[in-house]
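Margin note: ligand = iron/sulfur cluster.
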Amino acid sequence: MDAIPVTITRRGAGETTRTDVWWGTPLAIFVGLSLFVAYSTWAAFQNAHYTYGPYLSPFYSPVIWASPGDTAGLEHAWLGVKPDWIPALLPFSPALLILPFPGLFRFTCYYYRGAYYKSFWADPPACAVGEPRNSYLGEQWFPLILQNVHRYFMWIAVIFLFILSYDVWLAVWFPNPATGATEFGVGLGTIILTVNVVLLSSYTLGCHAMRHVAGGAHDEVSKHPFCDKAYACSTALNYKHQLFAWMSLISVAFSDIYVRLCSMGIWSDVRFL
Amino acid sequence: MSAATFKIWRTLPGGDGTFQTFHTEVADGMVVLDVVHKVQAEQAPDLAVRWNCKAGKCGSCSAEINGTPRLMCMTRMDELNLWEPVTVEPMRAFPPIKDLVTDVSWNFRVKKGITKFTPRTPDAPDGTWRMAQRDVDRVQEFRKCIECFLCQDVCHVLRDHGKFDEFIGPRFFVYTANLEMNPLDTADRVPELKHDKGIGYCNITKCCTTVCPEHIHITDNAIIPLKERVVSRYYDPITRLLRVFTS
Ligand code: SF4
Ligand code: SF4
Ligand code: FES
Ligand code: FES
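Resulting structure:
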């Protein structure tokens, strides 16, 4: 039989016979991601109210250098005061130095990629809905071929998990104003920062690139005992990757909001222990 | 019995088509394929529809119901809103033959181009192999495919961008994953995935996974793991360096 060449009648932008609310989910994702980007950018430029007692906002962790005079920030700074060689004209905040890494980790995440290609770039606007553009390069060609760096950002994100876990450890040592010493305690902030690390870990360890290095690269993972277990754990988290992507996004923003509002005196931290 | 209005795609002699409206009655438990057959029996004997098993297993009755790619025999009428007309049209990504029937032969040509299963030499003298169940389970999911091609139909790389010459589509990434991750297979399909099969065109928007009637995790378990293998081979200098040292 002769081959019949494939010819398709392309639909116009937004054209579909779908009768459900197909634009609902892409719109919700557009609003959710836009709000997060707007808030995190605003918060990163504030360079203030990012610590409260032993708590440090995850947007600002680690503090590599703090601004001169920022005594609260300096307590957390690894290398002390901002060095002179950073031009004074450049906007400075400890968050601006580190946020690009987790930001690019999420930007190149397979889940977020699929989500924002739809919501922000309408490629496609939703499944079985016509697209606005004819040309298409996908991730086969430049520029989106660069998304393949995702696994490197994943390793950086793993380092951040250790740093944020250390922040949780610090968040249980409260200064006692009477004695001047620090004492063990648990506040609502400690719990919020702990939940944040658990959610971020669930998101990061269920990453598709992690699943691949954990054991997915092997066809017979059962023959590699360590990989066998690691692959099973990563796969279990991977099945809920979308859920953890959103929960950890919300928790990281909320952790910053909590520390910020406590620091501004609008909320007061609750001490349980 | 309740009244229902169906708008069914009919091809016109010139090759173009239009929706034709049918008023009919539907009974409890009917599926869309039953209604199409009822219309065919009572009102439009020349209505062309492809079907075979009526059990969601042959993959013949793929169509777009209210704009969503689905199997007609697995779409129950009680899931649909009968206050509005129900639209039934052929798969939009493939050339129409007549009414609801499309020519899906492109898929069979694509399949022939994928490197065949190449098992290692048998593990035992009696010519048999040994495999761990969990390694088999991983590829078992891909074997559930019934070749309905709904995933191919919904994939925008084919449907909207027509990359039929450069991209094999989700169904065949599932097929390739089944071979490539098979514990016995020794062939290497990573170069062809990158260069000829166009895996980079997939932008992981998961429409294929959404429509798959066999609930195969097409994107998460087949396409992304294959993409990761391509990354290890072509885009990750550190892994390549490690491979040089370890091999
Ligand atoms: S996830 Fe990839 S293969 Fe599946 S529909 Fe989207 S672009 Fe096509
Ligand atoms: S992967 Fe699913 S949707 Fe695609 S052809 Fe197979 S059964 Fe159909
Ligand atoms: S795939 Fe989502 S974090 Fe890697
Ligand atoms: S008739 Fe076989 S899948 Fe519908």
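DSSP finds ten helices and four strands in chain A.
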